[in-house]
Design goal:
The longest helix is centred in the middle third of the chain and has 46 residues. The protein is elongated. With about 100 residues, the protein is mostly helical. It has one domain. Helix content is about 85%, strand content about 0%.
Length: about 100
C-alpha cells in the first residue's frame, strides 16, 4: 500500500463520528496531562524562587550593617510569608478533612 493510499484511508477514518470522539478524548487527556506537567514545573520553580527570596530576606534582616528600615522590611516580609504558608496549610487540611482524606 502506498503512502498516498494510506493517508487517504487515515483521513477517511478520522471523519467518522466514533473516530472523532476517540481522537477528541485522546487530545483532551493529553492536554490535561501536559497542563499537569506545566503546573508541576511551575510549582517547582516557584518553590525554588521562594526559597531564594526567603534566604535573601533572612540575610537582610540579620545584616547588622544594613539600614534598620531595610532590616524591618525584610523581617516583615519573612513574617508575611510565614503567615501565608500557615494559612495555606490550614486550608489544605480543611480540604483534606472535607474529602475524608485526613492523614492524622
Amino acid at each position: 500500500m502506498s503512502v498516498g493510499v494510506f493517508s487517504y484511508h487515515a483521513h477517511t477514518l478520522t471523519k467518522t463520528r466514533h473516530a472523532k470522539q476517540k481522537l477528541e478524548r485522546h487530545n483532551t487527556a493529553r492536554h490535561k496531562h501536559t497542563n499537569k506537567l506545566r503546573a508541576a514545573k511551575l510549582c517547582t520553580r516557584l518553590q525554588v524562587d521562594a526559597s531564594e527570596a526567603a534566604r535573601v530576606l533572612r540575610e537582610i534582616a540579620t545584616d547588622v550593617k544594613a539600614k534598620s528600615s531595610a532590616r524591618v522590611s525584610a523581617a516583615k516580609g519573612i513574617l508575611d510569608f510565614a503567615s501565608r504558608a500557615f494559612e495555606l496549610d490550614e486550608i489544605i487540611e480543611r480540604i483534606e478533612r472535607s474529602n475524608g482524606r485526613s492523614d492524622g
